[in-house]
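<derive_structure_tokens>
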Amino acid sequence: MKRTTIKDIATMCGVSPSTVSRAINNTDEISQATREKILAAIEETGYIPSQNARNLKVHKNKTIAVIVKGVTNPFFTPMLNVLEEEITKTHYTFSLHKVEENRCELEVAQRVVENVKPEGIIFLGGYHIEDPRKLHRLGVPFSMTTTINRDLEVDQSTCVGVDDYAESKKMIEYLINLGHRKIAFIAARSDDESIGRLRLEGYRSALEEHGIDYDERLVIYPTADINPYSLQHGYRSASKIIKEQIDCTAIFAISDFVAIGAIKAIDDHGYRVPEDYSVTGFDGLEINEFLLKPITTIIQPSAKIAYQSVVDLFHIINNEAYPKMSEFEGELYIGATTQPLENC
């Protein structure tokens, strides 16, 4: 089958090849209507811009951009340290770009490509399956530290991380094996399509496989004014469980930081962990080693994930073979915040 060229797209749209190029590179020199017409033709034909041709026109420098959404999440801190160390080892510049919760990572990435002209991008987290065209238009290799994007059909990209669905399911099965059947979940936002959705799906799946009905009242979402991965979300949610007398014996928090907030609220309201409520988290933060009651959690190998994301990205940059998916297994760490139900 003959490969679609930029001239074919230009002919289809009644424009010049240079206009097609400007649409691909997202410049401001063409109208929005023309841009949308060209992008629709690209999507219809499956045309993929030549990376080599684009690299000839766009000057790149020895920089790797790291784009992180939710930089206040302590889980990212050790990852950023590894990323900076490994990137600078290669004599590339480490360029960190923070994304506010209500902003789109891909819009930030596009501006970074235009202004910084990196040779590669590492996304810490993020959900991009609904934006393949925007990813195509970035025109640089990228690595994503989440498995939710595993089905993306974008050249010169790779995913690294744990299976959040499977690891969440592992935690709920552990609680069920302790005898808990009424398990609350302190969740991310209800419209979260990233790891929040995967962990919610793992929670639901484990319940259903053990014959436990899914109860929406046991899923606690953050209010609009609060960070879903914050101490405040955990504190408010556990307070809500106690004040509203939501019937549960165990709590699964979407992250360790959220679990810490929940434990504090339980203590402030005169209850005990794990005697009154078993509490679990997710991530395996370093701070857990220094808590009086270490949290039962899923330990993600954050350093390995960060290191592998750099390795895979440089394989792409150097035109070497690379895996589309590098998956790690999390470790169930049993701390001092859970116990069998019959002991409650």
Remarks:
- The two ends are 67 Å apart (CA to CA).
